[in-house]
């Protein structure tokens, strides 16, 4: 998939070093399940697993986000497609230098459009640490509705954290202004 500034593609072996770099940034890892630093051997296993999965089959798939002009890996979008092939969970990670510039919005918009338009999903959900204001704001900008708060739900890095739950239904996405821009290939 291509957007105005990004290419969303399958991971490849040449992504290992860059994945380890941005996932080793403590600020990037802060609200994520992994602990920084993210060693090269772990990145190798992750990339191998990412490359072996399919975006059209139940399970986990990770899209590599490549900055097209710079030809560099800048992040990833995670999708867990449920067994019914009608629902999915989405997540995203972006290298710190590329945060706050609309790249996550652009990448996640493209993935959502694929999920709802091509794969004809009914619903996509997202979950984030309640302290992760940027992720919550991004989901809301994308049209997700806040569906709940799970108090002290996740034990992460030795601390119980609250989780925010979000959901987006197919008619909400397909009728949105953002979906229209993605279809027209216009900037987000």
Automatic annotation (TrEMBL):
<dbReference type="GO" id="GO:0016747">
    <property type="term" value="F:acyltransferase activity, transferring groups other than amino-acyl groups"/>
</dbReference>
<dbReference type="InterPro" id="IPR016181">
    <property type="entry name" value="Acyl_CoA_acyltransferase"/>
</dbReference>
<keyword id="KW-0808">Transferase</keyword>
<dbReference type="InterPro" id="IPR051531">
    <property type="entry name" value="N-acetyltransferase"/>
</dbReference>
<dbReference type="Pfam" id="PF13302">
    <property type="entry name" value="Acetyltransf_3"/>
</dbReference>
<feature type="domain" description="N-acetyltransferase">
    <location>
        <begin position="6"/>
        <end position="171"/>
    </location>
</feature>
<protein>
    <submittedName>
        <fullName>RimJ/RimL family protein N-acetyltransferase</fullName>
    </submittedName>
</protein>
<dbReference type="InterPro" id="IPR000182">
    <property type="entry name" value="GNAT_dom"/>
</dbReference>
């Amino acid at each position: 998939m291509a957007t105005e500034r990004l290419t969303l593609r399958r991971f490849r072996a040449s992504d290992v070093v860059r994945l380890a770099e941005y996932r080793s940034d403590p600020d990037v890892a802060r609200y994520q399940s992994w602990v920084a630093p993210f060693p090269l051997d772990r990145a190798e296993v992750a990339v191998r697993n990412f490359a072996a999965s399919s975006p059209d089959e139940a399970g986990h798939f990770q899209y590599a986000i490549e900055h097209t002009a710079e030809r560099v890996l800048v992040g990833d979008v995670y999708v867990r497609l449920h067994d019914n092939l009608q629902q999915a969970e989405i997540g995203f990670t972006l290298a710190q230098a590329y945060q706050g510039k609309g790249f996550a919005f652009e990448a996640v918009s493209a993935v959502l459009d694929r999920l709802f338009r091509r794969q004809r999903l009914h619903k996509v959900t997202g979950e984030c640490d309640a302290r992760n204001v940027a992720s919550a704001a991004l989901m809301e900008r994308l049209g997700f509705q806040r569906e709940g708060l799970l108090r002290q739900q996740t034990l992460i890095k030795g601390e119980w954290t609250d989780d925010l739950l979000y959901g987006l239904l197919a008619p909400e996405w397909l009728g949105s202004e953002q979906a229209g821009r993605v279809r027209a290939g216009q900037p987000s």
